[in-house]
Design goal:
By secondary structure, the protein is of the alpha/beta class. It has two domains: about 150 residues, 3-Layer(aba) Sandwich (Alpha/beta knot); about 80 residues, tRNA(m1g37)methyltransferase, domain 2 (Trp Operon Repressor, Chain A, Orthogonal Bundle). About 30% of the residues lie in helices and about 20% in strands. The chain is built from eight helices and nine strands. The chain has a five-stranded parallel beta sheet, sandwiched between helices. Helix 1 links the parallel strand 1 and strand 2. Helix 3 crosses helix 5 and helix 7 crosses helix 8. The structure holds S-adenosylmethionine. The site of S-adenosylmethionine (SAM) has 20 residues, from strand 5 and helix 5.
Amino acid sequence: MAWCATVLTLYPEMFPGPLGHSLAGRALAAGAWSLRAAQIRDHATDRHRSVDDTPAGGGAGMVMRADVLAAAVDNALRREPELALLAMTPRGEPLRQEFVRELAGGPGVVVLCGRFEGMDERLFEARPIRPVSVGDYVLSGGEVAALVLLDACVRLLPGVMGAAHSGVDESFETGLLEYPQYTRPYDWEGRLIPEALRSGDHARIAAWRQARAVEDTRLRRPDLMERRGGVPGHRPLARGDDRDD
Ligand code: SAM
């Protein structure tokens, strides 16, 4: 069965949005994955179809009601009980490639999108929902965060990127950033493609790429390097093998 995504949202019309284009869009049209955007408001019970209320304890904005969200979640899980249940929230665990791979390797996801000041916390106590954040910044709603998560998963589905590209060589897959990429022209504004990459020597190219991946990760993302516990036996790039030769 195709990988399955259900998005619970107040704005179903935002889907598939960018996921209807390019790689993900072609895979959607080809049936490699399916997408259903469900309206949370359909689970409201009062005559105003309200999904939110004022924050307990006071303060600005509105909070999404636990009873309405739970009804939307329960309905989704009744239809597709095997799917991973996620909620997009800045309070969640940061989304990482290893988790993306785990999700892409499963049957699919139900993704709950927040709005306003967020969701009543009791929802997370009462349902087995994994809270997920796409970064340390605040978006106006969970829909863009859900699009990020779905895009990251869908490109890993079998056949979506094409046989030649498995994605295993990319940033974060080994805990490092990817090495920098270059293409023609060889000389652009006096900047040359590094000599190692033009050498045709596969071992030398692989060594250069590994060394640059390590160096760039160390400089740009010391947090990744620390999590990885450094790089045993790493040899920095030798003079003449560096980026500006
Ligand atoms: N008051 C909340 C806080 O400070 O943590 C922010 C609420 S935000 C304006 C509304 C919704 O956007 C959230 O419920 C969540 O679904 C989504 N959202 C915002 N930033 C996000 C992030 N970094 N990762 C995942 N979802 C996010």
